Amino acid sequence: MRALYTASTGMAAQEANVEIISNNIANMRTSGFKRSRAEFQDLLYQSMRRVGSATSDSGTVLPTGVDIGSGVKLVATPRVMSQGTVTSTEKPYDMAIKGDGFFQIDLPDGTTAYTRDGSFELDPNGQLVTAEGYTVQPGITVPSNATAVTISATGLVEATLPGQTAAQQLGQIQLARFINTAGLEAKGDNLFLETPASGTPLQDVPGGEGFGTVLQSYLEQSNVNAVTEISDLIAAQRAYEMNSKVVSSADQMLQSTSSMLR
Dihedral sign, CA of 54, 59, 65, 67? Predict the structure, then answer.
């Protein structure tokens, strides 16, 4: 019976939906995390009576047809890149982007990754790095005797040194943005990678046209909304239950048919 297979695709789709929702909820407190959502498409149809086909030699056609669907499939899990809440951390090397853009990170294999997580630290050499020790472009090094470090809204990093009245410029943070942010590949560790779908990165200083600004001593929280996720979870659970009910009903119908043949 076709209904068994059709309902099973619905159950598999909602199982995947619950897995996506659970990952969103698990990362509610992950800095810079962007929630995902499940997108579905219907599967192929078997046409029992094709709409528009001729019904007589005089040229009359079927105004409607008979098409039997074969279920549903998961086709995409795009990221929702809306702005997360910005909160104060009182840590001098934490940075949040208010607006569009990603920090650029040098990976050990030489490739560039992109992140919204601005929870940065200094390595033993005084270089600005991520929590995993990856260098933040363009490789800013803070002198060990610096008494204060300031990062402007436009990404200019300056340090106050003993015996100097004027602040010393250490470097300029640059941001990157993409035509299709949903096309970025999630690598883990709060990092994204460029793909053919995302397009090549556009680079500029914070505050440039189309780019957000930088807030020092702040972090962007995840954009996961607990109420929305729980509502989606309940809807997915009910959809799964209804598909399982279809399986039970189809089984009962098959059981009734087989008992008639005895």
Answer: positive
Is the residue at 34 inside a domain? no
Q: Which residue has the higher pLDDT, 121 or 50?
A: 121
Same domain, 215 and 232: no
DSSP tag of 182: G
- In tens, the pLDDT along 236-246 reads 999 999 999 98
What's 200's DSSP letter?
Answer: P
* Contact yes or no for 94/218 (Cβ under 8 A): yes
Q: Is the pLDDT of residue 210 over 70?
A: yes
Question: Distance between the two ends of the chain, CA-based, in angstroms?
Answer: 19
Q: Phi-psi region for residue 216, left (φ > 0), alpha (ψ -120 to 50) or beta?
A: beta
pLDDT of residue 51: 82
Number of domains in the chain: 2
Question: Same domain for 177 and 207?
Answer: yes
In angstroms, how far is CA 200 from the centroid of its own chain?
18
Give the predicted TM-score (pTM) of the model.
0.84
Q: Are residues 203 and 174 in the same domain?
A: yes
Q: Which domain holds residue 58?
A: 2-28+39-76+224-260
- List, for residues 103-134, the tens digit of each pLDDT value: 999 999 999 999 999 999 999 999 999 999 99
Task: Give, to the nearest 10 degrees, the angle between helix 226-260 and helix 2-26.
Answer: 160
In contact, 129 and 253? CB cutoff 8 Å = no
